[in-house]
Specification:
mainly alpha, two-stranded antiparallel ribbon, disordered N terminus, about 180 residues, 8 helices
Length: about 180
């Protein structure tokens, strides 16, 4: 057994051993760098699935080498999966895994906390605020939609949660 890996119990991510077995510490070690949650956010809420989309639509201006490294790290950790894109032989599509889809409540709470305590912009706060206001029921609907899109490869529903969140973002951006 590779001693740099955590023992793999059923359903656990293949990540390096942490400084301790504390679940908060291990989560921070996996997701606590500057870019990992931002990349997951952009796949989850932005609907971006390709390297070029993630690079050109990055509000924070991620560098291409950093994006490539984070995508590789997230794939290796089991938070994203790579798929050949049927529309182009040389394109790779990145999809959320079940483990990353289950981060929706955490992302909702982080966004709601940031909206309350930090000087955020209305257009970049609206999705987290709407998800927080919708409670667990809306989170579950969103996660079910993400499962269909990312785990099954289905299309984004025109009237789904992501479409509602995107419309709210576009409205806030146009008035801000």
């Amino acid at each position: 057994m590779d001693m740099t890996q955590q023992p793999a119990r059923s359903g656990q991510l293949p990540v390096p051993a942490g400084k301790s077995g504390c679940p908060i510490n291990l989560t921070v070690e996996l997701l606590g760098d500057r870019w990992s949650l931002v990349v997951l956010r952009d796949v989850m809420f932005g609907g971006y699935r390709h390297f070029r989309e993630l690079l050109t639509n990055s509000v924070e201006g991620i560098a291409s080498n950093i994006l490539a490294a984070r995508l590789s790290k997230l794939v290796d950790a089991g938070l994203l999966s790579r798929h050949d894109d049927p529309s182009h032989r040389q394109k790779i599509e990145y999809r959320l895994t079940e483990a990353s889809i289950e981060l929706v409540p955490l992302m909702t709470r982080l966004g709601a906390w940031g909206s309350r305590w930090l000087p955020t912009s209305p257009e970049l706060s609206i999705r987290a605020q709407l998800l927080a206001a919708g409670g667990p029921e809306l989170e579950e609907r969103f996660m079910a939609e993400l499962r269909t899109m990312h785990l099954e490869g289905g299309p984004q529903p025109a009237d789904g949660v992501l479409a509602e969140l995107t419309l709210a973002y576009e409205r806030a951006a146009s008035t801000g």
